[in-house]
Specification:
4-stranded antiparallel beta sheet; 8-stranded antiparallel barrel; alpha+beta; globular; 3 helices
């Protein structure tokens, strides 16, 4: 019952954290002439079912969310653990693997969703990226010409160095610094998706 109460109380923030992954999925899967319908589809991605897994990490339980449209996600608070078909929401194994993962080769401070929007003063483009605890993720670039999403894998070969590998095998390395005040942010020496600074938003 305590897990159920926690899930109900935190459902709005979980759904808010999930919207970034849903939007990136829609941009990747819709044809360019369908992008005008993306907002309507995004609105239809409402929760249709919850799976309360008997697994937790750092006192936060794992919750699976089924979405309209045949999609599903596994959440750890507002963090997206996995996203895909409806079955992802019910896979306890994914929750167990994430809960016991030692995060070897990854910097836990980078896990989550990041947006350049708070720092894009007067700029007509914005960037986002999401790094997941399993070493996968995606990046997004949006400007007046449209929106582009790329899937990627990531690791930290040494402290303070982020290595990104895109689907087509391109590798880039970025020195970074994470700070917590006034908001959690990361600053890169070499830009990621054309931006140097991002704020954490999930």
């Amino acid at each position: 019952m305590s897990r159920a109460e926690w899930a109900v109380r935190h459902l709005p923030e979980m759904v808010a954290g999930l919207r970034h992954a849903l939007r990136a999925h829609l941009i990747r899967t819709l044809r360019p002439d369908d992008l005008a319908a993306a907002t309507a589809v995004d609105d239809s991605g409402r929760p249709t079912g919850l799976h309360l897994h008997d697994v937790s990490r750092d006192g936060i339980p794992y919750v699976g969310i089924e979405l309209a449209g045949g999609l599903g996600a596994l959440m750890h608070g507002s963090r997206v653990v996995a996203f895909g078909a409806t079955a992802v929401a019910s896979q306890r194994r994914l929750a167990e693997e994430d809960a016991t993962d030692t995060r070897t080769g990854l910097d836990e401070a980078l896990i989550g969703h990041w947006s350049s929007a708070p720092y894009d003063y007067g700029v007509m483009e914005a960037s986002e990226f999401e790094l997941r605890a399993d070493g996968t993720g995606w990046s997004l670039l949006a400007n007046l010409g449209g929106e582009w999403v790329a899937r990627l894998t990531w690791r930290c070969p040494t402290p303070g160095l982020l290595e990104l590998r895109t689907e087509d095998g391109q590798v880039s390395r970025h020195r970074y610094l994470v700070t917590a005040a006034p908001v959690t942010s990361v600053t890169f020496e070499e830009p990621v998706e054309f931006c140097h600074q991002y704020a954490k938003s999930g």
